[in-house]
Amino acid sequence: MTQTSDLRARLGITVRIEPRDIAFTLLICTLIAVLLWVGTNDPFLDHLTFSLCIGFSVHGLFSLLLQFSRNRTSVLRVYLLAIPGGVVTGLCLAGLILGYPLARIFADWASSFSSMVIAVVASYVFYSYYTMMEMREALRREEFNRLENEKNLAQARLLALQSQIEPHFLFNTLSNIQSLMSTDQKSADRMLQQLTGLLRVALRRGNSIWCTLRDELELVRNYLSINEIRMGERLQWSLTVNVHDEAVRIPPLIIQPLVENAVVHGLETREEGGRVDIDVSESAGTLIFRIADTGVGLGNSSHAGHGIGFRNIRERLATLYGERGTVTLSDNEPHGLIVTVTVPAEAGEDLPATLQGVPR
Prior knowledge:
This protein is α+β, with helices and mostly antiparallel strands. It is built from eleven helices and seven strands.
């Protein structure tokens, strides 16, 4: 075995092109084509052709370059290289198929904007998808040697849970941008800047089971800013932070999914909208996150996302902290929901016993 392949094996990086990968790429590209086509007078087939060509070009380039990646940092370089390479290749292929002059395609700002959106979303989803597939395979391998690999099993489970949230969150953001592209270009540009901020935080975090409180708060601010552009005066929000050190380590995607639940399942269903207030405090070595909204409340929401998001966070906190990590729900008077999350305020390197190979 060569040095590169040996290192890749130790890092858990394997690349295989399987029918499920092709089907997944086809599904993602079709969804993106639909989102970009809605509200336009362009033929849907044109959007689909461009989306498929760019998506499969990004996928193919991502897979090819990933074969030569030596570590997790180089995987990030692969992601960044696959975006422009996939855009150029995909635009050329689509132009040849549809008979469009290449000069016209590359001179069209709207086409370039849509192409970059497709490439960014497609490559990031591929990145998350490959990570999730590797973690699922790790889970299956650990079933045969549970006692020896208890630490790896717990970490793989956490990463798989995190991967369930990210693509859903990203597609919601893309849909928000699309809704403004044809009506308010300036707002769409502002929203795209917020999306860039979201991706920057997500890529900086990588596959770690920890992130800083500062990064999570930046993610929340970007998300709320995006929805503030979209909902206007129907969304009011505040974020109050009273902690000793924002560099404290917490599990990623703990606050943002709860804020998203409050906005999407609580406030958006009300014609007049409402407000969401996030308070972060620290008491006796415990971080306390309080998300209060004036929405319809848990019992009046017709969406299943509430329960899925809460269950996901509860499972991750239980894996990391045992009984020391809690999620509680209560009614907000006169209407709405209050979610309170508590986790120990500890440094990221002070891993709980669960991740040090000690069974719970």
